[in-house]
Amino acid sequence: MAAPDPLDALGTAWFLVVFVAGPVAGWLWMVADIRAYLRRLKRAMVLVGAYATTPYWALRERPDCLLALGLERGCSADEVMAAYRLRVKTAHPDHGGSRDEFERLQRYLGEALRLAAGDDQPR
Predict the structure, then answer these.
(1) In terms of DSSP H, where are the helices of the chain?
(2) Is the Cβ–Cβ distance between 111 and 122 less than 8 Å?
(3) Can you give the pTM of this predicted structure?
(4) How far apart, in Å, are the Cα atoms of 106 and each of 16, 75, 80?
């Protein structure tokens, strides 16, 4: 059997590089990249899982009445009244607040109580 000539050796090497080594290198790069992606995802999930309070993006759609009282959707009437009692101590004109602030708080109380009762839209 005769030894392959240089053109055959070059063609064989080109075939091995393009059709064997190339896909193997691509697969190794993909595996390494997926592992890095999963590590980043794990860190991100730990970060998101570490929220102690409700994140800002979840609070953007709260009605003004709930924002003023520091409450979230789904609160009960008792929670609304407790938050109102805390706020009224500083908003009442007899305790250093302004009349406008107190009237706004009164209006927010009514809206928040309607939301707590099940009416979905504040007025």
Answers:
(1) 6-16, 22-49, 56-59, 64-69, 77-91, 99-117
(2) yes
(3) 0.50
(4) 80, 18, 12
User: In sequence order, what are the residues at sequence separation of 6 or more whose Cβ sits closer than 8 angstroms to the Cβ of residue 61?
Assistant: none
Nearest to 71 by CA among 102, 104, 116, 101: 116
Distance of alpha carbon 121 from alpha carbon 77, whole angstroms? 16
What are the pLDDT digits (tens) for 28-84? 888 888 888 887 777 766 655 555 666 666 666 788 888 889 888 888 999 999 999
The whole-number pLDDT of residue 80 equals: 93
State the sign of the Cα–Cα–Cα–Cα dihedral 55, 61, 66, 69.
Answer: positive
